[in-house]
Specification:
This protein has about 250 residues and is of the alpha/beta class. It is built from 10 helices and 8 strands. The longest helix is centred in the last third of the chain and has 16 residues. It starts with a strand and ends with a helix. The model has no long low-confidence stretch (mean pLDDT about 90). InterPro entries: AB_hydrolase_1, AB_hydrolase_fold, AB_hydrolase_sf. It comes from Nitrospirillum amazonense. Pfam families: Abhydrolase_6 (PF12697).
């Protein structure tokens, strides 16, 4: 089993759980696993311990979550992706990274792949949310972002709510660029996902028009695949590694 440790990356205090070869001292392909909203790097801890050998396994706390700075939500997929960019260049000799995104982490890693195409070898999209027409806002969400109600929410929920209030226009803007993704994409999605409905798969297949896309469907599975279907997630990551080597 890999040993897990925490490190701080970049000038903005990005907190990262890491395992495998030292990402700075040893040249190895990074596998970067990005959580949804709310969430934290700890959601990937099992994969850090049981992930493939010989690669640098990295799981950041996205800004606004876990131990990363800032403590408030960082709005915008491009801004979020920008904070993760230093993970792609920890060692100039590292091969391009494999990016794994769960739930709302999917659009973040897609944006990162678009902004840094030469540093990204493949995407693994696990129960991700991309179709803006499948996003449903609760009527109380705008109220929860106003004082004094906002102060009553725990920080992860407060920041998650703020992200979700702006996600629909962000996804519409992202859709215009998805056709520029050229790296292989492995999609893992459950048919019983209520948070990110299975219709997101067809949406991605339409919009990732210039990428090689492989879909892995889990019948009857829900949204929280990194906890309920760990072996399937790990197999999807291994498939992405194989596609990089092909």
């Amino acid at each position: 089993m890999n040993q897990v440790h925490r490190l701080s990356v970049g000038a903005h205090g990005l907190s990262v759980l890491a395992a495998g070869p030292d990402p700075v001292e040893q040249a190895a392909r990074p596998i970067i696993m990005v959580h949804g909203t709310p969430g934290s790097a700890g959601g990937w801890r099992w994969f850090l311990g049981h992930g493939p050998q010989g690669v640098s396994l990295l799981a950041p706390d996205r800004p606004g979550f876990g131990r990363s700075e800032p403590k408030q939500a960082l709005i915008g997929l491009k801004a979020q992706a920008g904070r993760l960019t230093p993970l792609l260049s920890l060692n100039p000799a590292n091969p391009p990274a494999i990016l794994v995104g769960h739930s709302m982490g999917g659009p973040v890693v897609a944006r990162l792949a678009l902004d840094q195409p030469h540093r990204v070898a493949a995407l693994v999209l696990v129960a991700t949310s991309f179709d803006p027409d499948l996003e449903h806002q609760h009527p109380l969400q705008p109220w929860a972002d106003q004082e004094p109600w906002r102060r009553l929410l725990p920080r992860p929920l407060r920041n998650a709510n703020r992200e979700l209030l702006t996600i629909v226009p962000e996804l519409r803007a992202l859709a215009r660029d998805l056709g520029q993704v050229r790296c292989p994409v492995v999609i893992l999605h459950g048919t019983a996902d209520r948070e990110s409905p299975y219709g997101n798969v067809a949406y991605l297949q339409r919009h990732l028009s210039h990428a090689m896309v492989e879909v892995r469907t889990l019948e009857g599975a829900g949204h929280f695949l990194p906890w309920t279907r760990r072996r399937d997630v790990l197999a999807a990551i291994e498939r992405a590694r194989a596609l990089c080597a092909a």
